[in-house]
Design brief:
This protein is of the alpha/beta class. Helices cover about 40% and strands about 15% of the residues. The longest helix has 16 residues. About 50% of the residues are buried.
């Protein structure tokens, strides 16, 4: 079912108004409600040149570019990460004049595929999001391919399955989860003095990010013989499930020194469970960089997170499908990318909060676009092309085999180009510290 916001946007785009002032009043009301429709997408223009959508269109040649409506697909908007992801998508699309609506698929493959069908029925040409499981990632990719709809995704995809296998799959972006998890585990183990019991709260079964974060934890554990890991029930990426998971395992764990939560929503649930039990002094770490968790780090409730900034990831994906619709041809290594993560600790939390986590994300979304800025585009974060042969080393090529197109892909060249293109934005000062 369409959201109230998407219905209002539809009226703005297609509604009949008796007088031009009626339309202007309608747009004023939308603006007061925080709903933005880019001028280029509405078939109009601003006489004074104001408005992010108008300016972005001008940068790339104005009306010659397509600003077709797009859709952002997330698991649930009851999760802080997905809320931030969706909000970042809205900001990015508004900045480049692209109408956007949102889907919640609840991690259900059939629901997600049905939503692709809804996009097709609406004559839509693109969708982007973050699938919950590898099965969903493959199903949505294939549904988009069959429907002729551009798709860009993050975090989760089956091993050895890459955009080389589907030309409508414009891009996959993921943090280097194994590497980040290994660094996070090391920081946790060092903080607790290299010994003691750590409770591990996994994410959602079937998710690439969950498997990779667990792999990073186990990798680091080999170097810490005095650390013991006790694994709780999956937290399923949500605060409530993680709260229940930790609460249920506490009676069987006599003593522990910290908790390795598989994402920040889970870390928030862990902290709530510890607070409810009156348990203090435990070191909690998470992933993703939710704003609430950065605040927890600043106040001492949480020790560390890896901030990839979900809203930034979403914006990058939205810009990707916009570029694809406007004829940008990505080289294969540009379609399979690792996104840099910043490890946020108590020493850096306050500064990160003040410089990056404003209500309006401080990124120049239009400048990320090759269609809008063909000669001076800037991703404003570290995007490192992934070599799938390295990324999936040791994983059997059972369900999927690596596409032979990768045999001739010049990954090194694209890595150099992307590193050089990253010149500005709030993450630029942390460039050398980003894990990618």
């Amino acid at each position: 079912m369409a959201s109230t916001e998407s219905k209002i946007v539809d009226v703005a785009l297609h509604g009949q108004f008796a007088h031009p002032m009626s339309r202007r009043a309608f747009f004023s009301a939308m603006g007061a409600a925080g709903i933005v429709v880019g001028a280029a997408a509405c078939g109009g223009s601003s006489s004074d040149g104001s408005g992010a959508g108008t300016g972005a269109a001008s940068a790339g040649g104005g009306g010659k570019l397509k600003h077709d409506k797009t859709w952002c697909q997330v698991t649930t908007l009851s999760n802080d990460f997905f809320v931030a992801f969706n909000d970042g998508a809205k900001q990015a699309m508004a900045a480049i004049g692209v109408p956007m609506a949102s889907f919640e698929d609840q991690g259900n493959v059939n629901t997600a595929i049905g939503q692709v069908g809804n996009v097709r029925t609406s004559s839509g040409k693109s969708i982007f999001g973050t699938p919950a499981t590898e099965a969903q990632a493959a199903a949505v990719t294939k549904a988009c391919q069959a429907a002729g709809i551009f798709y860009a995704s993050s975090y989760t995809a089956p091993a050895w399955y890459t955009p080389a296998d589907a030309d409508k799959w414009a891009r996959f972006i993921t943090p280097p989860s194994v590497k980040i998890a290994a660094a996070t585990a090391k920081a946790l183990f060092d903080k607790v003095g290299g010994s003691g019991t750590i409770i591990h709260v996994p994410g959602q079964k079937g998710s690439s990010a969950d498997d990779q974060r667990t792999a990073g934890l186990k990798m680091t554990l080999k170097d810490y013989p005095n650390i013991k890991i006790v694994t709780a029930a999956p937290g399923n990426w949500t605060s409530e499930d993680a709260r229940k998971s930790l609460t249920n395992i506490l009676p069987s764990v006599k003593d522990f020194v910290g908790v390795f939560a598989q994402n920040d929503s889970e870390a928030a649930g862990v902290i709530a469970a510890l607070d409810a039990q009156g348990i203090k002094g435990k070191i909690v770490v998470g992933f993703d960089g939710n704003k609430q968790n950065i605040q927890y780090i600043a106040s001492g409730k949480q020790y560390l997170t890896s901030a990839t900034i979900g809203g930034l990831t979403a914006g990058l994906l939205g810009v990707t499908v916009f570029d694809a619709l406007n004829g940008v041809k990505f080289e294969l290594p540009e379609t399979f990318l690792s996104q840099g993560a910043l490890l946020v600790t108590p020493d850096s939390a306050d500064k990160v909060l003040s410089t990056i986590y404003a209500d309006k994300l401080p990124f120049d979304w239009a400048k990320m676009s090759k269609a809008l800025h063909p000669s001076d585009w800037d991703p404003q974060t570290l995007l490192n092309p992934i070599d799938p042969k390295e990324f999936y080393a040791g994983v059997p090529q059972d369900q999927y085999k690596l596409n032979s197109a990768w045999d001739t892909a010049d990954i090194a060249k694209v890595r150099t180009e992307y590193a050089a293109a990253f010149k500005s934005g709030p993450l630029a000062e942390y460039k050398s510290a980003l894990v990618a």
